[in-house]
Amino acid sequence: QVQLVESGGGLVQAGGSLRLSCAASGLTFGSYAMGWYRQAPGKEREPVARISIGGNTVYADSVKGRFTISRDNAKNTVYLQMNSLKSDDTAVYYCAAGRTIATLSSGSWGQGTQVTVSS
């Protein structure tokens, strides 16, 4: 059974930084694409950053140049470094695992971690 556990969320002032972590178990981590999604109140869940098995990355336009996704296959962990945070980044952030970037949204999900950016 795949289990994804996010951590690192919290309250931060605009312009600040946070690093989210997602520890994965129950899967061959190096064989899965990983991603971060977010859902703000009243909005649909949206992809933020995704990383393929080979390390290729895809970012939402709204976070390009500010967020960086990375993976450590030895630790079964994917990270999201978030810099220059804005109030619009306030959301619950979810980790996802799937066979490919294209199928992440139909894969496994974590429980989410709250990120709140105060202006």
Query: How widely separated are the two ends?
Result: 40 Å
β-sheet strand percentage? over 45%
The gross shape turns out to be: globular
Structural class: mainly beta
Mean pLDDT: 97
The count of DSSP E runs of length 2 or more, i.e. the number of strands, is 11
Largest sheet: 7 strands, mixed
Low-confidence stretches: none
Query: Helix count, per DSSP?
Result: 0
Helical proportion? under 10%
Question: Tags for this entry?
Answer:
119 residues, mainly beta, four-stranded antiparallel beta sheet, globular
Structural overview:
With 119 residues, this protein is mostly beta strands. Helices cover 0% and strands 51% of the residues. The strands form two sheets. Strands 2, 4, 5, 6, 9, 10 and 11 form a seven-stranded mixed sheet that branches. A hairpin with a 6-residue loop joins β4 (33-39) and β5.
Secondary structure: elements and pairs:
Layout: E1 3-7, E2 10-13, E3 18-25, E4 33-39, E5 46-51, E6 57-59, E7 67-72, E8 77-82, E9 91-98, E10 108-109, E11 113-118
Parallel strand pairs: 2-11
Antiparallel strand pairs: 1-3, 3-8, 4-5, 4-9, 5-6, 7-8, 9-10, 9-11
